[in-house]
Amino acid sequence: MSETIVQLEDVSVFQRENLILNEINLEVKKGEFVYVIGKTGSGKSSFMKTLYADLPLKQGKGKIVDFDLKTMQEKDIPFLRRKLGIVFQDFKLLLDRNINNNLKFVLKATGWTDSGKMENKIEEVLEKVGMKTKGFKFPHELSGGEQQRVAIARALLNDPELILADEPTGNLDPQTSVEVMKVLQEINENGRTIIMATHDYALILKYPHKTLKCDGSKIFEVIQKAI
Ligand SMILES: Nc1ncnc2c1ncn2[C@@H]1O[C@H](COP(=O)(O)OP(=O)(O)OP(=O)(O)O)[C@@H](O)[C@H]1O
């Protein structure tokens, strides 16, 4: 029986007092790759934020990688985030240090202390995204696609059970988007669960996966032809 990574029952998503999405019922199993699509302002980011507990779950039931979104407290959030790898559109690398030190910073912040182990882990994740030789470079010395690959490497540092990617190709040209997508695809083929919000229909057609659409305060599965 495959493991459930996300389970939402009758969930509503609010931004302040405004209802953005409601009646969300969803199950994501280990190893799935799921897209979240929808027009600007339809609630994709709000949905993703609910999953990583940036927006509190006020209505409905939600479980994500063993955490109960309804009952979890502020102090539990860092522990949830350690089980997730989060990738944003704007990379969010620290500009004042090189790639190795960006990754080391995250490892130290999440409790790693052994220098040798940290170095091995950094090499391992950079290799996974094809950036093994670039660890000494600063973010501004890398292209957008390379920076996003580093951001994906950073998301892999703590072997997350789920990767949440919010418009990861939003700042990239079509060719670079495909390269970044290939990295995500490979990570998924190695068993990692991925939920990715995107506007990029070309990518969805090229790499078809289960697709959820946000529209009219609802989120529902669509088949390729209907996108
Ligand atoms: N911090 C906030 N405070 C209040 N309202 C917000 C906030 N963030 C988003 N909203 C509102 O919530 C709605 C959904 O926004 P959201 O960012 O989730 O949409 P989206 O589908 O991700 O859009 P985009 O594709 O442009 O990123 C919009 O009406 C937006 O104005």
TrEMBL record:
GO terms for biological process: cell division. GO terms for molecular function: ATP binding; ATP hydrolysis activity; transmembrane transporter activity. Residues 6-227 form the ABC transporter domain. Keywords: ATP-binding, Cell cycle, Cell division, Nucleotide-binding. GO terms for cellular component: plasma membrane. PROSITE patterns: ABC_TRANSPORTER_1, ABC_TRANSPORTER_2. InterPro entries: AAA+_ATPase, ABC_transporter-like_ATP-bd, ABC_transporter-like_CS, ABC_transpr_LolD-like, P-loop_NTPase. It comes from the Bacteria. SUPFAM superfamilies: P-loop containing nucleoside triphosphate hydrolases. Part of the ABC transporter FtsEX involved in cellular division. Important for assembly or stability of the septal ring. Belongs to the ABC transporter superfamily. This is Cell division ATP-binding protein FtsE. It comes from Flagellimonas meridianipacifica.
